[in-house]
Inverse folding.
């Protein structure tokens, strides 16, 4: 079965069209990365709060990741903290005259910023273009060395609604559809119009959320140098032909699998999935990875529920990159959790 979602990523990839048809070989996960490799992490952020019973983004929600890049015998480590610095603003109703009308009318004032992405459904009863919309909120990104010394900081804007939905539901839905293709059960193209819409939208929202994180990493002036340490740039010839370097993301949602184990310091409850992804630089595979994700309830919504990743270069086994969630704290009063402070 061939299922294709054509994404016209208006705000993320310079109006480029991305076809998501990843078929990736998984690598070992969880990785061997351990929290004690980052001696300075507790000075930056410590503990993992219990998952909240709401999905609101609150100022002070934050996560801390440990990053390790291995190039043969050379090993580099960093810490990356993401902290919510902007909350969704309330929508209010006002009354007054608008346009040429002289009669008072009631209208809505929404002060929030939004991002919009379009995608095309190519099967089912109602093929055509659709849109997904998300409020965009400010997040502070700070990079530290492994001892907790600050190296750089930057301001980001991320699609809060999409990251708040994460990839777990999309991965499970895509996997179920792929299994149905080989046996019994409803395939996506056999669903009714509402089912096709729900299936496609869930897949697209997950992919756009991951694309947002990739785009931030490669475009932000602070994070980009670290991103390109991990993802090897293509040849000079490719750079000349493409007039620069562009990284794209292929997501293998249909090849995802439920995780049987995960790092011991992470919450024991909840669903965990492993999703294979591949980063291409100017169309050439530059990094393949398995991403471990869980349900993105606060404070894990800031990173879309991603808690670990094990990546490698497709042709250079000496080049590896590992990522691990070390801490996650809620901005509001914690409702119980694990780690220091509880």
């Amino acid at each position: 079965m061939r299922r294709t979602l054509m994404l016209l990523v208006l705000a993320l990839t310079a109006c480029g069209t991305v076809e998501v048809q990843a078929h990736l070989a998984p690598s070992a996960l969880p990785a061997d990365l351990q929290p004690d490799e980052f001696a300075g992490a507790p000075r930056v952020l410590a503990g993992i709060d219990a998952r909240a019973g709401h999905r609101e983004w609150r100022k002070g929600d934050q996560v801390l990741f440990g990053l390790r890049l291995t190039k043969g015998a050379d090993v580099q480590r960093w810490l990356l903290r993401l902290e919510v610095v902007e909350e969704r603003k309330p929508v209010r109703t006002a009354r007054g005259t608008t346009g040429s009308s002289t009669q008072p009318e009631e209208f809505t004032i929404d002060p929030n910023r939004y991002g919009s992405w379009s995608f095309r459904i190519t099967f089912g009863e109602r093929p055509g273009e659709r849109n997904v919309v998300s409020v965009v909120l400010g997040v502070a990104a700070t990079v530290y060395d492994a001892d907790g010394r600050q190296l750089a900081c930057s301001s980001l804007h991320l699609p809060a609604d999409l990251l708040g939905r994460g990839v777990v539901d999309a991965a499970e839905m895509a996997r179920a559809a792929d299994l149905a293709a080989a046996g019994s059960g409803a395939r996506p193209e056999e669903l009714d119009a509402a089912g096709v819409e729900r299936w496609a939208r869930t897949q697209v929202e997950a992919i756009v959320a991951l694309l947002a994180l990739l785009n931030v990493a490669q475009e932000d002036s602070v994070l980009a140098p670290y991103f390109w340490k991990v993802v090897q740039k293509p040849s000079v010839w490719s750079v000349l032909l493409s007039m620069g370097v562009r990284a794209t993301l292929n997501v293998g949602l249909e090849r995802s699998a439920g995780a049987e184990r995960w790092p011991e310091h992470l919450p024991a409850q909840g669903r965990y999935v492993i999703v294979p992804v591949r980063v291409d630089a100017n169309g050439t595979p530059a990094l393949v990875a398995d991403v471990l994700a869980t349900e993105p309830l606060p404070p894990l919504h800031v990173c879309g529920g991603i808690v670990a990743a094990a990546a490698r270069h497709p042709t250079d086994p000496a080049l590896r990159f590992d990522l691990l969630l070390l801490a996650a704290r809620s901005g509001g009063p914690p409702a119980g959790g694990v780690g220091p402070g509880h």
